[in-house]
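Handout, section B. The chain below has 384 residues.
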Amino acid sequence: MLNTERLRVCYFGTYRAQYPRNRIMIEGLRRNGVEVVECHTTLWRGIEDRVQVVVRGWYTPSFWWRVICAYGRLLQRYRQVGSYDILVVGYPGLLDVILARGLSWWRGKPLVWDVFMSLYLIACERNLDQRNPLAVSLLRWLERLACTLPDLLILDTQEYMHWLCETHRISARRFRLVPTGADDHLFRPPSQAKTSSEDLFRVVYYGSFIPNHGVQTIIKAARLLKDEAGICFELIGSGPQKAWALELTKEVALSNVAFEDWLEVDQLVNRVAQADVCLGAFGTTPQSLMTVQNKVIEGLAMGKAVISGDSPTVRRLLQHGEHIFLVERENPRALADAILTLRAEPALRNRIAQQGQQLFVDHFTPAHIGQQALRHLQEIIKEK
């Protein structure tokens, strides 16, 4: 029976506790008066750990012993949760859903999974299906099974929903949409103006250097602008395409590109605060075309002009020239021209930044994200 005074949610699994999607969903529900009890333990050591398991480690005794220990800890913590109204599995949660289904049946409570992204699709985009086709086939089968178990599935875009429906033969009625947001306690307009030289125009990318970000487009755009005095590209983070980006930068002697490893969140925010333009994603992979990346929404939240690759998914939320500057994907010339335009037209740059930030305040704060998520949770509880 629904607790009409205060909804109690058990947020369950081996989800990535510091990943923006999970933090914003939990914080957003709490801002809307929901009591969220986290029942969490760590299974994965990071993205590369998951990659290595898919490539060659999923069948090893050491991996399955790790799985047994992790879920043993999770069950111990679950015993201490007490009563709740609904069980929510956080992203990624592919294996968690199987255990959660049994627990939710036992308690007689509905189960919701925030799928957010397809691990099968991510594996294919990293070419893991070529390195270990059996493991990726198993991953696809597991994902299809996992999608049939919850009472409700959550995604962030219609395009992603349609892809999952076609790939795994799932009814669209099982899905609800909750868009990507950003933490407005961290990502907010800087209290002070830029401290860097007025002659330096900073173009900032941060991310995991994966194919859907289209880092090669950024480097090639920097090459086109190498003779433009004062334009500086700063690329922050690490990932599979960083070595290629470093090598190309060195090969063509680009003095306008600087690399840095991942920074602590407060340092990253300070670095973005000094940017004139923030970059989104420019790849043409399905993952890139079907999502609006965290960095795009975070750039809006900080009141920065954001340049990103065009797609129907982005245009559902953001208007070119009003909230964001969109360019053709995998087109370095288009990106270079966009940077030159925003440098030459500060009034346009400032208008896009201000209107993008206002759109974030109106639609994509944790409070708004939590409000939408809460509405879907209440709907499925009433149906039960």
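Note. The first helix runs from residue 20 to 31. Compare this with the example in section A.
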